[in-house]
């Protein structure tokens, strides 16, 4: 299903696929990618489909979803830049390539929340925070697995910093649709994880 969707997107836009599906499988497939894998991409695409009415440029946002974690190294700080570069390598440096790369940069989640399509993409990417407690716990465990090389004390400190930063925001989700659906549960989930981490 995922492969069909990807190839269909390329065919619809008359873009030469050129073996990119196989590159996705290779990039997203390593065992150490316990969360940032093709399941995450599929989940993001499902949220995208559910909220298509919020999206101004569906083509750019869908390509951004496919590429946004294609480079994911837990020891690096430039994953979004490199993922954007990978998208531009595939799409070319025309308008679409630049738009997709800019959208991917927004998934650094460095500010409060983005606007327009960048904001929708960020909400899609963060929607895992507001799922059921069981799904959230699965996600949190997968993130810990991805940082398996980090000592427990250091991980707890770093993870708590990330959670505190998100909880300190006026709102986690910028669009009303995502805010109404996920905001309260996201805060409850993260507060519970903070408690498990010792409330640091």
Structural notes for this entry:
Helix content is 65%, strand content 0%. The chain is mostly helical and 200 residues long. It has one domain (2-196): Orthogonal Bundle (Catalytic domain of cyclic nucleotide phosphodiesterase 4b2b). Helix 3 runs antiparallel to helix 4, helix 6 (95-106) crosses helix 7 and helix 9 (152-167) runs antiparallel to helix 10 (176-196).
Q: What structural class should be given to the helix and strand makeup? A: mainly alpha
Arithmetic mean of pLDDT: 95
Strand count, sense and barrel status of the largest sheet are: none
Number of domains: 1
Quaternary organisation: single chain
What percent of residues adopt helix (DSSP H or I)? Answer: 55-70%
Strand % is under 5%
Please give the count of helices: 10
Which fold name fills CATH's third level, the topology?
Answer: Catalytic domain of cyclic nucleotide phosphodiesterase 4b2b
Total number of beta strands: 0
Uncertain runs are none
CATH structural architecture: Orthogonal Bundle
Rg (CA only): 17 Å
Distance between the termini: 42 Å
What does the overall shape look like?
globular
Q: Brief description of this entry?
A:
With 200 residues, the protein is mostly helical.
């Amino acid at each position: 299903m995922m492969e069909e969707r990807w190839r269909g997107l390329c065919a619809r836009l008359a873009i030469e696929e050129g073996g990119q599906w196989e590159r996705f499988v290779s990039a997203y497939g390593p065992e150490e990618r316990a969360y940032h894998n093709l399941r995450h991409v599929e989940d993001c695409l499902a949220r995208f489909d559910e909220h298509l009415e919020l999206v101004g440029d569906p083509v750019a946002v869908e390509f951004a979803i496919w590429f946004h974690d294609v480079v994911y190294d837990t020891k690096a700080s430039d994953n979004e830049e490199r993922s954007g570069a990978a998208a531009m390598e595939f799409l070319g440096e025309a308008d679409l390539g630049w738009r997709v790369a800019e959208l991917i940069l927004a998934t650094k989640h460095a500010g409060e929340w983005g606007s327009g399509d960048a904001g929708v993409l960020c909400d899609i990417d963060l929607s895992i925070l507001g799922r059921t407690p069981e799904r959230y716990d699965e996600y949190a465990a997968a993130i810990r697995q991805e940082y398996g090389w980090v000592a427990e004390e250091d991980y707890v400190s770093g993870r708590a910093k990330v959670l505190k930063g998100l909880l300190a925001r006026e709102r986690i989700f910028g669009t009303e649709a995502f805010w109404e659906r996920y905001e309260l549960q996201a805060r409850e989930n993260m507060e519970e994880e903070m408690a498990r981490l010792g409330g640091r």
